[in-house]
């Protein structure tokens, strides 16, 4: 099936809307893509989730939790900063390695 629209297209549902593809789905937007969800958003990916931003990515929330069942790596090409407004706790479990030419603790 092929649908071609010259100007605008609107899809609306009074209750539920399902979009399903048997194999692949692709959405291409030439300028901006805005999505508004009034409640919760759940994204479930069976294998890998790859997110790429050409310039800048912002994630803002009242509380953010990062969790991995195996391992987690944070890597920066030149500079990595972590800052807390009032307190920060670092727990290395049984072993913590700090490798640097200069270490400054105030």
Q: Your description of this structure?
A:
By secondary structure, the chain is largely without helices or strands. The protein has no helix or strand. It is elongated. The mean pLDDT is 88.
Topology at a glance:
Layout: no helix or strand
Distance between the termini: 65 Å
Stretches where pLDDT falls below 50 for ≥5 residues?
none
Number of strands: 0
Estimate the global geometry from the Cα principal axes: elongated
What structural class is derived from the secondary structure elements?
little secondary structure
β-strand amount: under 5%
The whole-number mean of residue pLDDT values reads: 88
Largest sheet: none
**Rg, alpha carbons:** 22 Å
Looking at how many chains there are and whether they match, the oligomeric state comes to single chain
User: Percentage of helical residues?
Assistant: under 10%
Structure annotation, total helices: 0
Structure described in brief:
The chain is largely without helices or strands and 106 residues long.
Output the keywords.
elongated; single chain; little secondary structure; 106 residues; 0% helix
